[in-house]
Amino acid sequence: MSINLQALSAQLLVGLINGSFYALLSLGLAVIFGMLNIINFAHGAVYMMGAFAAYFLLNLAGIGYWPALILAPLAVGLFGMVMERTMLKWIANLDHLYGLLLTFGLALIIQGVFQNYFGSSGLPYAIPDALKGGMNLGFMFLPIYRGWVVIFSLVVCIATWFLIERTRLGAYLRAATENPTLVRAFGINVPLMITLTYGLGVGLAALAGVLSAPINQVRPLMGADLIIVVFAVVVIGGMGSIMGSIITGFALGIIEGLTKYFYPEASNTVVFVLMVLVLLVKPSGLTGRAA
Amino acid sequence: MKKVVSTSLLGFALMMSASSLAFAQDKTAKIGVLNDQSGLYADVTGVGSTLAAQMAVEDSGLAAKGWKIEVVVGDHQNKPDIGVNIVRQWFDRDKVDVIVDVPTSSVGLAVNNVVKEKNGVYLNSGSGTSDLSNAQCSPNTIHWAYDTYQLANGTGSAMVKSGGDTWFFLTADYAFGSALERDTTNAVTAMGGKVLGSVRPPLNTADFSSFLLQAQTSKAKVIGLANAGGDTINSIKQASEFGIIKGGQKLAGLLMFISDVHALGLPVAQGLSFTETFYWDLNDGTRSFSKRFQERMKNKAMPTTVQAGVYSSLIHYFKTLDAMGGNSHDGLKIVDKMKATPTDDIIFGKGTIQPNGRKLHPAYLFEVKKPEESKGPWDYYKLVATIPADQAFTPLDKSACPLLKKT
Question: Sorted alphabetically, which InterPro entries does this protein's record hold (chain A) (predicted)?
């Protein structure tokens, strides 16, 4: 096979775009797992809800893309917090398996309800006017919206990492996961913090949903298709590692993009092959600390 | 000894009369609707096909003549093994007589073999692959609504005629996609066109940008989308995002359904041309059926070609049963009789069934209206050309069906 350098660099860029979705989603998963010890299988469903929230804001209330970028994650984040307070809280001290099963069940219910009302083909959501069109980079035609997605999600990822690893609030949070009783003794409201963290993780997923609404159809199953890949990303990066999940997200997007160029038939499986390889060599993931 | 003979004769006579009685009076039929109830083809087939089957039962008028007809539904999740399991259970345990719908060609072909083995009736409206009436044809099968040859022939020839003589394919990586690519390639090269290449994304892909970029760099005049349902929607949407249409390349949606156009919205879908055998706004018959259908659909959708096909195929099946006076549960016999009877219904009008199991009716080349041309929701298509029934499908002398060699 002759390698066309132009086409190759285009694929790399496209991979980076997909990678930013993986990064945003796996970041939320990592935050939730790291701080709450919950394997959040409802992540795909809240991602889908984010996209639907943007659709409803536009079509029912006439609120466009830019406000939706803030409002939709807030609304879905609130929903997540309610979910945490009413359900997840009660199983916090049980085995991981319970959280997994509960969130998985919730995801199925949420998806089922949306599918019942909106079918499987999905609803259209237009690209905001300011980001329409594209530019010719010489080696490829880059839609401006996709460029925006990469830059925006990179900023969000780094901000989240900074919040958790470098601020006082983040330090409380990390301390609370290590020893909640002790942190409570310092007068910090740990349950509230946990709820807010879950809201943050869910909000990140909803944000990714809003970002993807103009690219993909707003479909009830959009999250279910993506979540499995994102879990593989988290496992490769190491459960609970913030930086690890960001870097792996972007890296796997690129690897997938290359596969789409060299052997497209395998593009849906390459992530899982990598996951198996990583688990064989380093069971805790690339950046994970051994348990 | 004499007594023994007479009693056994009496018993024999009783048995004879009992069995002939059963034959004359067996007025039951069980319909199995097998399709994708929740995945990417759920809007094309799904609950709409179930509704179409129920409407066919009601419209057949058989209940008034003392018939008992039951409809059961199965979700094959687009997986051949699941489909085959359901069908086996239906035949062995639930005594289902006829399987209808069955989208996803890989499942459609797998089910084809089981129905033949169990001597049932198979009226497929959901699968695209033209193999169902070619190399894989079966005496128990009628391929009803559309097929890849007809799609390729209609859209492929029309595109080449209007100047699109170089092609690049985006092909869904399974039986249907490759059949569609093969049939379209034949149609394009027969008209003097050239295929520059193809790429095969897996079924149910969310992001087509990599594949679209490859299509873009190929510089082909036409990008043929040999995929269906959600895959087609995503590839068309993203093609407009990457400026493929603005760059002068044309998209050919080789299999489009009205549910896809509805999901895309006219601003994105306008100008696409493709072939279908059914559209709700074709004539009074299709309009009356579609309006009734729409009222009963939860999401108020118009019927797709597949759903209309399910209705049409069952109407003909019920007509045949009625003419035979009872259900013999003998698939071969019923399908033979169905083939011998000309078809006539409000969906496809008058038609015939070829000996290889291909149902014939006209096909239509449509173009999607511009937003300003549309008078309201679901007013989406402009009729460009009608392809008569005898030219729309594989000609018999080109069919590779082994059934044809016997005669």
Answer: ABC_transp_permease (IPR001851), BCAA_transport_permease (IPR052157)
The model carries a pTM of: 0.82
How far apart are alpha carbons A273 and A116 in whole angstroms?
A: 34
Structure tokens at B7: 């009693």
Residue B353 near residue B383, CB atoms below 8 Å: no
Per the CB < 8 A criterion, the answer to whether B381 and B269 are in contact is no
* Residue A143 to residue B245: CA distance in whole angstroms: 13
So what's the ipTM on this one? 0.78
Spatial separation of the C-alpha atoms in residues B225 and B199, rounded to whole Å: 10
Per-residue pLDDT band at B14 (split at 50, 70, 90): low
CB contact (8 A) between residue B210 and residue A119: no
CB pairs under 8 A between A and B: 113
**Distance separating alpha carbons of residues A258 and A246, to the nearest angstrom:** 19
Tell me if chain A has a CB within 8 Å of the CB of B38. yes
Beta carbons of B69 and B62 less than 8 angstroms apart:
yes
Helix (H, G, I), strand (E, B) or coil at B63: helix
**Alpha-carbon distance B135 to B394, whole Å?**
12
B243 confidence band (pLDDT: 50, 70, 90) = confident
Give the highest mean pLDDT range of A121-135, B57-71, B193-207. B57-71
CA distance A263 to B206: 17
pLDDT digits (tens, 9 = 90+) for A235-279: 898 877 888 889 999 999 999 988 988 888 888 889 999 999 999
Q: Domains plus CATH for chain B?
A: 28-146+284-361 (3.40.50.2300), 149-281+363-391 (3.40.50.2300)
User: Nearest CA of chain B to the CA of A176: how many Å?
Assistant: 38
Q: How far apart (Å, rounded) are the C-alpha atoms in residues B133 and B356?
A: 5
For B25, B179, B292, B342, the CA distances from B64, given in Å and listed in that order, are: 15, 43, 21, 24
Residue of chain B minimizing CA distance to A11: B210
pLDDT at B18: 47
What is the pLDDT, as a whole number, of residue B151?
93
Count CB-CB contacts under 10 A for residue B324.
Answer: 14
Contact B75, B37 (CB under 8 A): yes
Name which of A120, A143, A265 is nearest B242 (Cβ-Cβ). Answer: A143
Burial of B315 (0-12, 13-18, 19+ CB in 10 A): buried
Q: How far is B50 from chain A (nearest CA, A)?
A: 15
Dihedral of CA A121/A126/A131/A133: which sign?
positive
**CATH numbers and ranges of domains, chain A:** 5-281 (1.10.3470)
